[in-house]
Amino acid sequence: MNRPLILLIFILSSCTIQEKKNEVDNKIDQLISQMTLEEKIGQMAQINITVITDGPDKWNSYEPLTLDTEKVKKAILKYKIGSVLNTANNQARSPKLWNQIIGEIQKTAMIESRLGIPIIYGIDGMHGATYTSGATIFPQQITTAASWNPENAYQMARVTAYETKACGIPWNFSPVLDLGQDPRFPRQFETFGEDPYLITQMGNKMIEGYQGNEISNPNNLATCVKHFLGYQTTITGKDRTPSYLPEHVLRELHLPSFKSAIEMGTKSIMINSGLINGIPTHADAYILTTLLREELGFEGVILSDWEDINKLHDRDKVAKSRKEAIKIAINAGIDMSMIPYDYEEFCDKLLELVNEKSISLSRIDESVRRILKLKFELNLFNNPNSSYKDYPDFGSEKHAKLAYNSASEAITLLKNKNSLLPLKKNLKILVTGPNANSMRSLNGGWTYSWQGEKTEKFAQNHNTIFESISNNFGVKNVKFVPGISYPYNADFDKDPRFEYYDQSEDQFNKAIIEAKKSDVIILCLGENSYTEKPGDLNDLNLHPLQKKLAKKLAQTGVPIILIINSGRPRLISDIEPLMSAVVNIYLPGNYGGDALADIISGKVNPSGKLPYTYPMFPNSLTTYNYKPSEIQNNAQGAYSYVGEINILYEFGYGLSYTNFKYDELKVNSSSFNVNETVEISVRVTNLGDKIGKETIQLYSKDHYASLTPDMKRLRRFKKIEINPGESEIISFSLPISELSFINQKNINTLEPGNFDLMISDLNKTIEVY
């Protein structure tokens, strides 16, 4: 194709895009000009579905689920509500029922209301269409990050979009782009780990998978990235508690993933439920308007988190009343309030505030314009609902294979003493521990219900670890004794300070007796499902009962394979030396048991790498990019000791059943200016007899800087597959400008000096001038 023709096509395409944009803008202008203030305010309100279902109160619905016609009319026709979210009674629904319920809601909104503005329905589809029965459930984000393959993030988002749209839901509150630095935090599993670059690469692929080129496409949906900003780095390590973060740290570590998401075109952003430096984020005009709107140029919808505007008064005490809380939040920059129950109060008080001129009409119009634009972009005015019959691949084997692949690439081998794994055939295997026969613990929270406690009801067609091991090694060779168990119907609202177990001495002793008859023990420890406040911890150590079981089993002398099945790295330092092998499966989803069994049997060669630093002690919680002073190796003067960073396993660490050799590290020059790019290459050779996947990780280290530099920072990575005996040359391009940092004046700066570029144990020093 010749150049003039390419240029003409580009110009015509640009004109078409601009014409469509102008057309949408004109429609929005016309619609806003017809809207009453009450109709505008209604667009800014989002309610929980139970508010309009048939049930005894606003929190609970009757089953089978039906809408209450009068409640629907009150919300949509009287209060002009513009958005609905969530599921009813905290459980998954079939695509057919979703279609029916949403269709009835849209009928009221579009046929019976004065202007016919559609509802926009939102949901938390965190690792699949997680509130839909029969949907494909993928590994959680932390597990996906452990695969170090962004293609897995893309496929998860693509399938989630398809299966969520099969339900008629066009808006997903995903992905989570928080920095998961703190292993104590109950939502670390929802993140892509502790590194900004890894999070950004995974997040970008999820946005691409969700939104595609056009969110109006029947197979795509609108993203809502969350939680802006600095949510998971709290002082206490507990959910929705204060963070104290200098702005240069916010910008250096927490902002990059969100900045990139905005550049990728995310349509909405959900706000941090906590506080930064004493200011609730929902009240922080600097964060929401100056930074997010003006500096980053975000044009989409800013959504509150669950009931967080009310919390400005009820919890944080920065507003003397809920009315003042609404005033503060809307003026700070919130477009839509996830109320989710007392919508009458929000709408009435916001109306009063505008009439009193405490909030300007122009401020309301700004938010309404953004919300209407999202609805037009989703084509909801023409196609407000979809039919599950148009999505034949919903819950298909094709989708299941993608979820399995993601889990099998993520599972991380951390220890393999005397090459115990993969296991030989015809061994007598004991599978034990509270996570051995549980679909709930494989999936974690946000699975069929908020806390995942209903997973067993919906995931019966999938295999637990025990079932998968039995299928792989033969029923006659595999025995299951739980030893200790989580309560089957554990209530998610129990006191979060304690973990609950059903302990039977008989079961405990039976596990020890059976162990003595076995050739190998597969010990499955970790956590039951949780998220948010119910997952807060006072002790990161693995529960004493679990460690007791591990130590008693170790006394039998039978080799133990420890399977860690948890959303965060629970401390295992006192039992790890007793284990012959350690495998971290994180939260691998419905196909995690099958993937683990294939790794243990050797059908799959493990290739996962840790997306976080695995700590050794409660007071040695650090990330891989720690500061030099954290090493504490000063052996002079008063500080006459030598210390170290006490970690159990490093970020980016993971073993294989084969061995990889790195050599021939090369760079294209030894000195660079800020406008140049370093080209770096390395040769990787598979020295073993098995085909294997390896993640090549490029790090940099600044020798000296005006702010203490990190010990190292991840700059690039690539996952490859290499046949036995073969080599591959891997190359990276790194603009020198990316070696910059944010200084105390919040300015991105690159100072001249020496930098190390490191791959594996190889190192090249370059000069930047």
Explain this structure to me?
Helix content is 32%, strand content 18%. It has 769 residues and is an alpha/beta fold. The chain has three domains: 40-390, TIM Barrel; 411-611, 3-Layer(aba) Sandwich (Rossmann fold); 658-768, Sandwich (Immunoglobulin-like). The strands form seven sheets. It has an eight-stranded parallel β-sheet. A six-stranded mixed β-sheet has the order 11-16-15-14-12-13, sandwiched between helices. A five-stranded mixed β-sheet has the order 20-28-27-22-23. Helix 17 packs parallel to helix 20. It is globular. It starts with a helix and ends with a strand. The model is unreliable at 490-498 (pLDDT under 50).
Describe this structure in a few short sentences.
With about 775 residues, the protein is an alpha/beta fold. The protein folds into three domains: about 40-390, Glycoside hydrolase, family 3, N-terminal domain (TIM Barrel, Alpha-Beta Barrel); about 410-610, Glycoside hydrolase family 3 C-terminal domain (Rossmann fold, 3-Layer(aba) Sandwich), CATH 3.40.50.1700; about 660-769, Immunoglobulin-like.
